[in-house]
Amino acid sequence: MCLAVPGKVISIYEEGGMKMGRVDFGGTVKTACLEYVPEIQIGQYTIVHAGFALSIINEEEAIKTLEIFDGLAAAAADD
Amino acid sequence: MKYVEEFRGRERVQAVAAMINAEALPSRTYNLMEFCGGHTHAIFRHGITDLLPENVRMVHGPGCPVCVLPISRIDHATALARIPEVILCSYGDMLRVPGSNGTSLLKAKSQGADARMVYSCMDSLKIARENPGREVVFFAIGFETTTPPTAMAIQQARKSGLKNFSAFCNHVLTPAAIQNILESPHVREFGTVPLDGFIGPAHVSAVIGSRPYEYFAEEYQRPVVIAGFEPLDIMQAVLMLIRQLNERRAEVENQYTRVVTKEGNRKAQELVAEVFELRKVFEWRGLGQVPYSGLRIKKEYAEFDAERRFSIPSVKTEERKGCECGAVLRGIKRPFDCKLFGTVCAPENPVGSCMVSSEGACAAYYTFRRHGR
Amino acid sequence: MDSRRQRRMTDDTIQLAHGSGGKKSHELIHQLFLPFFNNPYLNKLNDQAVLNCGGKRLSFSTDTYVVDPIFFPGGNIGELAVNGTVNDVCMCGARPFFLSAGFIIEEGFSIEELRAIVKSMQEAAKRANVLIVTGDVKVVNRGKGDKVFINTTGIGFMEHDLELSSEKLKPGDAVLLSGSIGDHGMAILSLREGLSFETTIKSDTAPLNGLVEEIIKAGGRHVRAMRDPTRGGLAATLNEFAEASKVGIHIMEDSLPVNPAVLGACEILGIDPLYVANEGKLVAVVAPEGEEAVLRAMRAHPLGKETARIGEAGYKNPGMVDMLTKIGGRRIVDMPVGEQLPRIC
Asked: Partners for B (CB, 8 Å, 3+ pairs)?
């Protein structure tokens, strides 16, 4: 349900009165409507679903989540 | 791809698996429903169940918009596509879904109907502008994540004065469906379907936030953990649910903190509320009539409502005899319990809705796991 | 023939899926064509028929090209038509020599574009050192075709006595893949109406007869079977091998070479690269004794630089393909049904 993939906003422009952006997914670039994330900046990451950006990815939270696992992986490696 | 590979790393996933195996009490089972079809697909695609102990059982929920759409709505869309001046635009997911007597949008297309696949609903606006002499109808399906795009398309159509665009609205709501499952006698009275906790949908929650689930945790004393779609997200969410159950807590926790917030996407919620309103009741394949579980286009946007613009006689349709999709969608039965599974009903010739979408439990079992019986 | 295939046709009209190289295509072939054309050569259902002609063994294959758009990053329909049939002819170890080329052209199609297509066919034939020795042109009314369709048929000769076939796999055999998957299919999809995305992905269309010669030279009788996975992707080819030889095929997701841009495009569209078409890759199944030599020979060839050992044949789940996923779980890699459509949920 609701396949949405993270991509990096590499340019922002206006089209038909709507804020649009080009979003890079590992080398493949697709346009997306940014109306639902009006405050997004170039360089930030967003999740795109059916051509619409729906949320700006929180970089710190992503790092925090991964760090928990790295802690786990290290702990598991000790015992 | 950033934010994808890191959450699929083997060492991290194996580390969480070790924690789950250590903390899951052997004396009990943990029946965890992943409500969302996206999670069902990810669980099978990555083989996550192989990393979980026997007593942690994933129960597949009805959160797959293709699976839950009733045959009558598919027949309705096919009938729209057969109207000569109509161009029916649909997401790829719906093109192969069988309606009654084996017809589908793809089959209607092979008989001359103009049914086209679009990646984004905005493409259907473009098709409408390019074909002023035709009537473009967008087949709108999906949960709260897929509703804001339709709202934007309708608003844009109005702003640009587009006269030949309308949407056939089938948007459905997650909380109403979760409540329907928890209210069902199997869960509430008989306990024939043990449901200990929920893995909450990822991108629905990006739109509606984590708050709407607090009612379920409180009212039905079931923990809910909102999780992303990557293996690491799902495994961590399972660990968080096990901890809550072991500590007798029933709270809403958010694992997918990099995307989901408590409030969700306010602008999306506001635009949806402007264009759509609650239907008193909406039929779900497998769940039957579920109150306040679907949306309809408001009167103010009536010209963009395909149900008002085209009169299509609605016809009562039932499931193929022997199809257990209804029970599978509620977690009462497993795909193997259905007599049609893998014989009459298989991906190349799907009978029930759960075999059509790659997110349906039956398709997932058949495609990814049928050897593991 | 496999009894499981005896079910009658489930459709009463031809659908797109019947042309996709997946289960529906197999059903059409088994239920409709084979009962009429039934003969030992065709029944093998390899990509080419191997015939005995006056003491010489001849490889014979045909294919039709209806790709849309006809010009795409990395090539065009003409080059594709030559390389595709050259590849089908040589996969049994034959050296391709002669091609035919039949054109069905729509009224109104641009001569300039036709010239560009034919020119690239000639260049591709030169690269694969084959000759286009016969052909045909038909023109249909506007709207009754789509610009141009090309059928090519090829003939090659076996200059050895090896018997490669999809029925020859044995448990323990190594499955080698000559390079990244999904490049052609995603290059085409990136231009499809309403889906367009900017990408560096290019079609991998290429003649593989040179690479096949190196493999035969290095592996000889240890080479069990070879096939170029086109429509239906790697998954279709592996399933065809597993079914024909009644062995299980076990692959590892970590070992699959996938171009990052292809992975990105697949993630956005909800498509699995295992099912996406290739036009310049081959799968070679080799007995353990010949694995090392063949792997080295493939990697030494320009079209095999990225060759990877992606798995092996085994006893478990005969007739099926399964995969050890990146995180250490296991999943079946099923035969595709029809064409993979982008999905949003």
From this structure: A, C
pLDDT band at B321 (very low <50, low <70, confident <90, very high): confident
Provide the domain count of chain A: 1
By residue count, chain A amounts to 79
C190 with C248, same domain?
yes
- Domain containing residue C108: CATH number: 3.30.1330.10
Quote the minimal CA–CA distance from A79 to chain B in Å.
11
pLDDT at C2 over 50: no
Asked whether the beta carbons of C86 and C208 are under 8 A apart, the reply is yes
C141 and C206 share one domain: no
Smallest Cβ distance to B121: which of A6, A35, A50?
Answer: A50
Helix (H, G, I), strand (E, B) or coil at C175: strand
DSSP-derived secondary structure letter, C80 = H
Tens of pLDDT, residues C263-295: 999 999 999 999 999 999 999 999 999 999 999
Residue C29 lies in a domain: no
**What's the rounded Cα separation, in Å, for the pair C205 and C74?**
7
Q: Does B101 score more than 60 pLDDT? A: yes
Domain end among C157, C185, C202: C157
> Cβ(C341)–Cβ(C335) under 8 Å?
no
Residues 261-280 of C with CB under 8 A from A: 261-265, 267-268, 270
Q: Which residues contact C314 (CB under 8 A, 6 or more apart)?
A: C171, C172, C247, C248, C249, C250
Contact C241, C227 (CB under 8 A): yes
**Is C126 in the same domain as C195?**
no
Report the distance separating Cα C276 and Cα C281, nearest Å. 12
Domain regions of chain B by residue span: 5-60+175-254, 67-172+274-309
Which residues of chain A does C265 touch, with a Cβ-Cβ cutoff of 8 Å?
25, 28
Q: What is the CATH number of the domain that holds C283?
A: 3.90.650.10
Architecture per CATH, domain B5-60+175-254, reads as: 3-Layer(aba) Sandwich (3.40)
Task: Please give the structure tokens belonging to residue B266.
Answer: 């306010």
Host domain of residue C285: 174-332
Domains contained in chain C, number: 2
B67-172+274-309 matches B5-60+175-254 in CATH topology = yes
Q: Please tell me whether residue A14 adopts helix, strand or coil conformation.
A: strand
Q: What residues form DSSP beta bridges with B169?
A: B140
State which CATH number among 3.10.20.740, 3.40.50.11740, 3.90.226.10, 3.20.20.190 fits the domain covering B67-172+274-309.
3.40.50.11740
Pair type for strands B165-169 and B135-140: parallel
Instruction: Give the model confidence (pLDDT) of C19-32 as tens digits.
Output: 988 889 999 999 99
Structure tokens given for C11? 């459709």
pLDDT over threshold 90, residue A51: yes
The shortest C-alpha distance from B118 to chain C (Å) reads 6
Which burial class, exposed, middle or buried, applies to C267 when counting CB atoms under 10 A from its CB (0-12, 13-18, 19+)?
buried
Q: Give CA–CA dist B357/B364, Å, rounded.
A: 8
Of the three residues C157, C185, C209, the one that is the final residue of a domain is C157
What distance in Å separates the CA atoms of residue C328 and residue B47, rounded to the nearest whole number? 8
Give the dihedral sign, CA C30/C32/C33/C35: positive
Average of per-residue pLDDT across B157-163: 97
ipTM: 0.93
Strand partners, B138: B89, B167
Q: Which residues contact C35 (CB under 8 A, 6 or more apart)?
A: none
Which amino acid, residue C144?
A: K
- Note if the bond before B185 is cis, omega within 30 degrees: no
Q: In Å, how far are A40, C26, C94, C154, C167 from C164, measured between CA atoms? A: 57, 21, 10, 18, 8
Cβ separation C329–B117 shorter than 8 A: no
